[in-house]
Write a structure and sequence with these properties.
Number of strands: 2
Keywords: 4Fe-4S, Electron transport, Iron, Iron-sulfur, Metal-binding, Transport
Number of helices: 3
Shape: globular
Protein name: Ferredoxin
CATH architecture: 2-Layer Sandwich
Cofactor: [4Fe-4S] cluster
Distance between the termini: 31 Å
Radius of gyration: 13 Å
Largest sheet: 2 strands, antiparallel
Number of domains: 1
Helix content: 10-25%
Pfam families: Fer4_7
GO molecular function: 4 iron, 4 sulfur cluster binding; metal ion binding
């Protein structure tokens, strides 16, 4: 399951540097999460760092991108694989 940031975001800048996959960036009005890069920190941490650090609890699971832990691990492995020479 990829995460998403709701419009309750206060743009506190805490989540973006905490994301090990660089899936979080500033959108038009508030931060957004790229579901193609979000692994909910699987492979990096036990818990999603953005959710842990968010002071307003505005980062729920994105219902449009439901994934199993196994799928998230596969995504993590793709994202962290060394490029072919």
């Amino acid at each position: 399951m990829a995460l998403m940031i709701t419009d309750e975001c206060i743009n506190c800048d805490v989540c973006e540097p905490a994301c090990p996959n660089h899936a979080i960036s500033m959108g038009a009005e508030y931060y957004q999460i790229d579901p193609a890069k979000c692994t909910e920190c699987v492979g990096h941490f036990d818990e999603p760092q953005c959710v842990t650090l968010c002071p307003v609890a505005c980062i729920p699971v994105n219902p449009a991108h439901v994934e199993t832990r196994e799928t998230l691990m596969q995504k993590y492995e793709r994202l962290t694989a060394a490029p072919a020479a």
